[in-house]
């Protein structure tokens, strides 16, 4: 064997060895992902083994793609490969860049998966948006061991450089093997065939495809079967966000009838609904409270075993709890845009708040005549260009942000939630004392990495594993005690807000609306009525409740609701006349008790879907393939019954596409 190996020209053997090195690097990161980040509900070892098998083949494909430049150089230079200083330097520089980029991308992928539960995709580029890089960099600095990580990368790259140098020296010191033309041609053809076969990756009539990694409905197994870098590159060439007026007109009659527009006019694409006011209703204050990363599954009201949110539970029990409330997409910026404009943010890579052509919208918040309009957050409104969502669409809006508070910054997200609430309550009190009704959007942020918590009034205490029933903890879905403490701290601050409202005298004439912006990343959980972890709707199923002890009787609403519905609902509660140009409806409209659907986006098995969800059915369409499926949530939420109920499927297909195409159209054509 040794003789056969030595008889191969050293430049060809060098290519083989470098191929092995690259493959082992990818295998190392795959193993790290499996040991420390992989989570699944699937217990079938055969499925996990298949994911490993497919993932390794993708790793081989990427390895062979990266080795091609060196292989070509070696075949062209032949024995001159080890005698040319220019080739040596080119070789070292190429491999240094390749290993550095691979290492950084794999680390970024692991962080992305830990944060969002998804492999790396082009949407990560939104974190590099102009004006936001510094904030995002501070978040990374405060949330992760950046210094130790950078030192580890430096040491790792040094070891790789030493390995490269020693490998070169070892091969350069060996005697050259001279080949005649035919043997050389044979080696060249053999190399080409091996590389082509490895990149083809299949014993079939078609090459290895991403769809093969999606052989289960489980995101963890699918993620294990992918190579994150190839996946990132394959999704990079996304189409620009736009609309197709012809498709909008095709589905307009369905969505217009569903929305009950004033005048069904396909030629004008009219979406307007005029809602008369009720002057007999008191002009109560409205405070919308966005709860960062607060899905339904993590809170006490939805049967989580850890019962982490007693303050929210108390308020929900005394107010109105929406058991089936959804946000259109998993993104804080998309939630702020959606609740404010009444349109789902379905942008592919950026967010609508970062698209200048989508910032001009006719919204209901602007129509609260006689009300002061406020937006308050602890950080900077340059984040995601959110400032423009309000200043461009809400006349006279008062924005309170970082630098305007007396309290010091707590972390990258600005002042702590406790301090933000304390100072916000003073602002609300001043308005209330002057008998000026107000509608305010209060955005909390601490239930988010780096999970900064304070002692609040001095009585908030973090817990440790020793304080917890870890059997319950493992069933609850929480991924860490830090995450659990951050939610407890958010719940503490919800209680603080109500205490301040009572103390400052505006509790009795204010409606508080609490809602999560999306769920946090969780381990598999089974305690919800629907298998939402498996069907992937758990990420957009959020906590939502209203509290106003003098004006709202305790009630639970099971009809599906969306954050698009918040402003139409609160406008109706205070008797405010308005024109609704977009897609939200009044959550208390009794005529919609049986036919209400919410529009949502989610990722399952690394595939993006848009869907509508109602009391009984979930109808989804794959963004990429346009394949559709329908599930009966009452009978079997995991079985596609689209073929079994063609009439229902056709109706829901039209409504789903109507929501989607109308959203695309209105994002560009709902200008003031």
TrEMBL record:
Gene3D superfamilies: Alkaline Phosphatase, subunit A. This is LTA synthase family protein. It is found in: Cell membrane. It comes from Chitinophaga nivalis. Its main location: membrane. PANTHER family: LIPOTEICHOIC ACID SYNTHASE (PTHR47371), PHOSPHOGLYCEROL TRANSFERASE I (PTHR47371:SF3). It is a multi-pass membrane protein. It comes from the Bacteria.
């Amino acid at each position: 064997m040794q003789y056969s190996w030595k008889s191969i020209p050293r430049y060809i053997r060098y290519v083989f060895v470098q191929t092995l090195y690259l493959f082992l690097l990818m295998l190392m990161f795959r193993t790290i992902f499996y040991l420390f980040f992989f989570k699944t509900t699937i217990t079938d070892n055969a499925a996990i083994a298949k994911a490993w098998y497919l993932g390794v083949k993708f790793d081989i494909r990427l390895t062979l793609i990266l080795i091609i430049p060196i292989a070509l150089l070696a075949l062209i230079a032949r024995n001159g490969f080890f005698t040319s200083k220019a080739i040596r330097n080119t070789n070292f520089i190429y491999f240094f860049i390749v290993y550095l980029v691979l290492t950084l991308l794999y680390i970024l992928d692991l962080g992305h998966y830990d944060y969002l539960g998804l492999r790396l995709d082009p949407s990560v580029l939104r974190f590099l948006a102009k004006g936001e890089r510094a904030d995002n960099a501070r978040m990374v600095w405060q949330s992760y061991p950046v210094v130790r990580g950078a030192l580890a990368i430096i040491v790792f790259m040094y070891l790789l450089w030493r390995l490269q140098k020693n490998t070169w020296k070892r091969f350069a010191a060996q005697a050259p093997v001279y080949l005649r033309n035919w043997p050389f041609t044979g080696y060249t053809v053999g190399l080409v065939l091996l590389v082509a076969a490895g990149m083809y990756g299949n014993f079939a009539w078609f090459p290895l495809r991403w769809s093969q990694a999606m052989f289960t409905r489980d995101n963890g197994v699918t993620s294990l079967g992918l190579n994150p870098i190839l996946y990132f590159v394959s999704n990079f060439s996304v189409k620009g966000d736009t609309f197709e007026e012809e498709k909008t007109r095709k589905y307009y009659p369905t969505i217009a009838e569903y929305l009950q527009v004033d005048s069904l006019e396909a030629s004008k694409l009219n979406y307007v609904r005029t809602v008369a006011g009720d002057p007999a209703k008191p002009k109560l204050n409205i405070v919308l409270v966005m709860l960062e990363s607060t899905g339904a599954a993590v809170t006490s009201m939805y049967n989580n075993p850890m019962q982490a949110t007693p303050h929210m539970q108390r308020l929900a029990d005394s107010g109105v709890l929406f058991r089936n409330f959804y946000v259109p997409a998993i993104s804080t910026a998309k939630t702020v845009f959606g609740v404010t404009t009444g349109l789902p943010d379905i942008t592919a890579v950026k967010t609508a708040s970062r698209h200048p052509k989508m910032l001009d919208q006719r919204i209901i918040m602007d129509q609260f005549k006689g009300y002061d309009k406020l937006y308050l957050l602890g950080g900077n409104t340059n984040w995601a260009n959110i400032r423009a969502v309000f200043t461009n669409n809400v006349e006279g809006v008062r924005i309170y942000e970082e630098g305007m508070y007396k309290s010091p910054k707590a972390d990258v997200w600005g002042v702590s939630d406790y301090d933000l609430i304390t100072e916000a309550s003073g602002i609300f009190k001043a308005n209330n004392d002057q008998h000026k009704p107000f509608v305010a959007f209060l955005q909390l942020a601490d239930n988010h990495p780096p999970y900064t918590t304070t002692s609040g009034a001095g009585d908030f205490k973090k817990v440790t594993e020793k304080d917890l029933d870890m059997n319950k903890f493992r069933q609850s879905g929480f991924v860490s005690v830090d995450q659990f403490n951050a939610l407890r701290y958010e719940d503490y601050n919800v209680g603080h807000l109500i205490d301040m409202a009572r103390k400052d005298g505006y509790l009795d004439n204010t409606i508080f609306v609490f809602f999560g912006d999306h769920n946090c990343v969780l381990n598999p959980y089974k305690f919800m009525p629907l298998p939402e972890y498996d069907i992937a709707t758990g990420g957009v199923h959020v906590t939502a409740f209203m509290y106003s002890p003098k004006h709202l009787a305790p009630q639970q609403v099971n009809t599906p609701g969306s954050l698009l519905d918040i402003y139409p609902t609160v406008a109706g509660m205070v008797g405010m006349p308005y024109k609704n140009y977009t897609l939200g409806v009044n959550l208390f409209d009794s005529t919609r008790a049986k036919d209400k659907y919410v529009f949502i986006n989610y990722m399952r098995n690394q595939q993006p879907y848009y869907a509508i969800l109602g009391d009984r059915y979930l109808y989804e369409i794959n963004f990429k393939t346009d394949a559709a499926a329908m599930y009966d949530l009452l009978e079997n939420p995991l079985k596609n019954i689209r073929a079994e109920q063609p009439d229902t499927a056709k109706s829901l297909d039209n409504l789903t596409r109507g929501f989607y195409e109308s959203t695309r159209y209105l994002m560009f054509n709902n200008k003031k």
